[in-house]
Amino acid sequence: MRLRALKFFKNVFKENGTVTAGNSSGLNDGAAALVLMNREEAELRKIEPLVKIVSWATCGVEPSLMGLGPIPATNLALKKADWQINDVDLFEINEAFAAQRLQLLKI
Protein backbone atom coordinates (compact mmCIF):
# COMPACT_ATOMS: atom_id res chain seq x y z
CA MET A 1 0.00 0.00 0.00
CA ARG A 2 1.26 3.46 -0.81
CA LEU A 3 1.37 6.08 1.93
CA ARG A 4 -0.85 8.48 -0.03
CA ALA A 5 -3.60 5.81 -0.17
CA LEU A 6 -4.03 5.91 3.64
CA LYS A 7 -5.96 9.18 3.49
CA PHE A 8 -8.84 7.45 1.68
CA PHE A 9 -9.67 5.00 4.48
CA LYS A 10 -12.66 5.91 6.66
CA ASN A 11 -12.37 6.17 10.45
CA VAL A 12 -13.52 3.01 12.20
CA PHE A 13 -14.64 3.98 15.70
CA LYS A 14 -15.52 7.66 15.80
CA GLU A 15 -15.86 10.73 13.63
CA ASN A 16 -12.50 12.45 13.15
CA GLY A 17 -10.79 9.42 14.72
CA THR A 18 -7.40 8.09 13.68
CA VAL A 19 -7.93 4.32 13.51
CA THR A 20 -8.67 3.01 10.00
CA ALA A 21 -8.35 -0.25 8.09
CA GLY A 22 -5.15 1.20 6.68
CA ASN A 23 -3.30 1.58 9.99
CA SER A 24 -4.62 -1.34 12.05
CA SER A 25 -3.88 -5.04 11.86
CA GLY A 26 -6.23 -7.48 10.21
CA LEU A 27 -7.68 -10.70 11.50
CA ASN A 28 -5.56 -13.53 10.18
CA ASP A 29 -5.53 -17.28 10.30
CA GLY A 30 -2.78 -18.85 12.30
CA ALA A 31 -1.85 -21.76 14.50
CA ALA A 32 0.37 -22.23 17.51
CA ALA A 33 1.05 -24.75 20.23
CA LEU A 34 2.43 -24.35 23.72
CA VAL A 35 3.38 -27.06 26.18
CA LEU A 36 3.27 -26.11 29.86
CA MET A 37 4.34 -28.23 32.81
CA ASN A 38 5.66 -27.76 36.29
CA ARG A 39 9.34 -28.20 37.11
CA GLU A 40 8.81 -31.64 38.64
CA GLU A 41 7.20 -32.96 35.45
CA ALA A 42 9.99 -31.48 33.33
CA GLU A 43 12.62 -33.15 35.53
CA LEU A 44 10.76 -36.47 35.36
CA ARG A 45 10.76 -36.27 31.54
CA LYS A 46 14.34 -34.93 31.43
CA ILE A 47 13.20 -31.76 29.68
CA GLU A 48 15.19 -28.58 30.22
CA PRO A 49 12.78 -25.68 30.88
CA LEU A 50 13.08 -22.81 28.40
CA VAL A 51 11.20 -20.20 30.40
CA LYS A 52 9.61 -19.66 33.78
CA ILE A 53 6.31 -17.87 34.29
CA VAL A 54 6.98 -15.54 37.19
CA SER A 55 3.73 -13.60 37.22
CA TRP A 56 0.70 -12.71 35.15
CA ALA A 57 -2.40 -10.59 35.54
CA THR A 58 -5.58 -9.52 33.79
CA CYS A 59 -7.86 -6.60 34.46
CA GLY A 60 -10.44 -4.45 32.79
CA VAL A 61 -10.81 -0.73 32.31
CA GLU A 62 -13.72 1.62 31.66
CA PRO A 63 -14.91 1.61 28.04
CA SER A 64 -13.64 5.18 27.61
CA LEU A 65 -10.13 3.83 28.29
CA MET A 66 -10.39 1.05 25.69
CA GLY A 67 -6.95 -0.15 24.72
CA LEU A 68 -5.22 0.91 27.93
CA GLY A 69 -5.94 -2.30 29.87
CA PRO A 70 -2.32 -3.49 29.58
CA ILE A 71 -1.23 -0.64 31.87
CA PRO A 72 -3.00 -1.75 35.08
CA ALA A 73 -2.47 -5.42 34.15
CA THR A 74 1.28 -4.84 33.81
CA ASN A 75 1.40 -2.97 37.11
CA LEU A 76 -0.48 -5.79 38.85
CA ALA A 77 1.79 -8.49 37.38
CA LEU A 78 4.88 -6.53 38.46
CA LYS A 79 3.49 -6.16 41.97
CA LYS A 80 2.70 -9.89 42.23
CA ALA A 81 6.28 -10.70 41.19
CA ASP A 82 7.72 -8.03 43.51
CA TRP A 83 9.46 -6.50 40.49
CA GLN A 84 9.93 -2.97 39.21
CA ILE A 85 9.35 -2.09 35.56
CA ASN A 86 13.12 -1.79 34.99
CA ASP A 87 13.54 -5.44 36.04
CA VAL A 88 11.98 -6.47 32.70
CA ASP A 89 14.06 -6.39 29.52
CA LEU A 90 11.24 -6.80 27.02
CA PHE A 91 7.46 -6.52 27.08
CA GLU A 92 5.32 -8.34 24.52
CA ILE A 93 2.00 -6.52 24.36
CA ASN A 94 -0.74 -7.72 22.06
CA GLU A 95 -2.41 -4.75 20.46
CA ALA A 96 -4.65 -4.33 17.46
CA PHE A 97 -3.90 -0.71 16.64
CA ALA A 98 -0.72 1.36 16.40
CA ALA A 99 -2.42 4.16 18.35
CA GLN A 100 -2.74 1.85 21.36
CA ARG A 101 0.95 0.96 21.34
CA LEU A 102 1.95 4.61 21.11
CA GLN A 103 -0.21 5.47 24.13
CA LEU A 104 1.25 2.59 26.15
CA LEU A 105 4.79 3.78 25.35
CA LYS A 106 3.96 7.23 26.75
CA ILE A 107 2.90 5.76 30.08
Q: What do you see in this structure?
A:
The longest helix is centred in the last third of the chain and has 12 residues. This protein has one domain. It has 107 residues and is mainly alpha-helical. It starts with 38 loop residues before the first helix and ends with a helix. It is elongated, with a radius of gyration of 19 Å. 25% of the residues lie in helices and 0% in strands. The protein contains three helices and no strands.
List the helices and strands and how they pair.
Elements: H1 39-44, H2 70-81, H3 98-106
Short overview:
The protein has 107 residues and is an all-alpha fold. The protein has helices spanning 39-44, 70-81, 98-106.
Morphology call = elongated
The proportion of strand residues reads under 5%
Query: Main beta sheet, described?
Result: none
Name the poorly predicted regions.
none
* Gap from first CA to last CA: 31 Å
- Give me the Rg, rounded: 19 Å
> What count of structural domains?
1
* Structural class based on helices, strands and sheet pairing: mainly alpha
What letter string, H or E per element, gives the SSE order? HHH
Number of helices: 3
**What's the β-strand tally?**
0
Helix percentage:
25-40%
Question: What distinguishing features does this structure have?
Answer:
mainly alpha; 107 residues
